[in-house]
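Input/output pair, single chain:
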Amino acid sequence: MVKTVWATVRDGKLELLESSELEEGSQVLVTVLSSDEKEFWQQASQTSLNKIWNNLEDDVYNELL
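Output:
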């Protein structure tokens, strides 16, 4: 299973920004993002989410509530 979690580096160690139940000895892959890249990927993700969740076709479900 692939799981993505946010972390920061403090004193040379990764500090998770959210709690995560990682098993002791789990192997992880770390991708380092610069501030510019982080902003780009957040914006790119938001655009995709808006296309999926913010559309008139889903308004029909609001009428059922």
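The mean pLDDT is 80. The chain has two helices and two strands.
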